[in-house]
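cron nightly-structures :: item 1 of 1
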Amino acid sequence: MEFIRTDRVEAIRKRIDHPIIDSDGHLIEYLPLVRDFLVEDAGPDLGRAFDQMVKSSGPRVAVPEPGRRRQLGLHVSGVWGLPARNTLDRATVMLPRLQYERLDELGIDFAVLYPTYGLPVTSLGNTELRCGLARAVNRYYAEAYADYRDRLEPVAAIPTFTPAEAIAEVEHAVVELGLKAVMLGGTIPRPYEDAPNSPGRWIDTLGHDSLYDYDPLWRRCEELGVAPTFHSGGQGWGTRMSTTNNSYNQVGNFAAADEGTCRSLVFGGVPMRFPRLRFAFQEGGVAWASALLAGLVGHFEKRNREAIEHYNPATIDRDLLDRLFARYAGAAVSDRLDRLGDGLAMLSDPDEMESDVDMFGASGVESVEDLQRIFSERFFFGCEADDPMNVLAFTTGLNAGGVSLPAVFASDVGHWDVRDIRDVVPEAYELVEEGRIDLAEFRQFVYENPLRLWAGTNPGFFRGTVIEAVEAGA
């Protein structure tokens, strides 16, 4: 077959003088081969467990009655999430050679490909299946894409229920298999110790208040030169627990998960302790990051260890307060002035622990500028082509400190929200056509920011790729 650029893609490529890097495309694993790898590496029992996982992938199958699903803490999962009528696109993301041959048609020079069926690796409760599936899909990525990595880079799936399992798989994927990008689980559902069989779970976000110390994982990523990236979802949390409507659960769920992990890393001090690492939060866009940065700055300005003393109940001038109440209180209050202390106690406890008062102590953040640097230099935000809120990354007047947030073009090809993969570059370019960003900012979005993300932690990330050749001639 011959794959020719559409007129829109061709026109865009004539207007720009730089490559386009897709930092979050998708592949769809060929499951029969993944299953064979799983059985070969881990045995037939895990093969049967894998079959059961595939067969009962939705609660409508496992538990048909919505009322019963609610009592079991089950939410409705995705419905028809992959291309079907557009059969060419379905085959494209399943066949590495076909995807490779279509890149020019799409106007994309280099694509980083995240898992599809490998996504459950970050959330499966069954330890043996979780780790076995990670090993199988990562072998699949390394072998299936071996001949195409000058333009297609598959992303390893890394389970993070414990730092030990994460480090083991990162080392296997990067050192033994030679993969250069990793997807970590950033939101881990943990059972409550007193009710391990309850459907209720708390969400561990790997940084602040985590069950484990994940610093050995961050240190190993730094040593191996791999950027920790996250592609977790928030379905099944709180209000995203519908038993009948997946769109109700789906809307905003990636942003919620990204925000939770990002906030946790900041308060846990991870970016300050590991300055060489770059972190990416995929498929949630950038609007949540703009809001989070504003919130963090606002809290730091009023709640850092020095500023919070403004609210220390020990600093109340009781003589002045007594005089003010004596002069201005109405009769009903004046009759009860002997209980004035009772009226001051709530939300103003003088016996707070030091660790609770110093809320930014563990973060290592010492200034608003530290926060701005983290969000403008260390954190990167995967933005789908059709998201109009991408403009917030470049609207510096709306971001705290006037910073630009490093948005990276993330096509999401292969999943339900891309009806025709030939449209992703034109959709991303619409912000230029509408006058919302300029060509220099488009260049940042699709080229410069991805370079900073992937090569910032690993300067050799693009070695042997088409991007290396472009950079060499720059």
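cron nightly-structures :: done
Residues 439-457 form the longest helix (19 residues).
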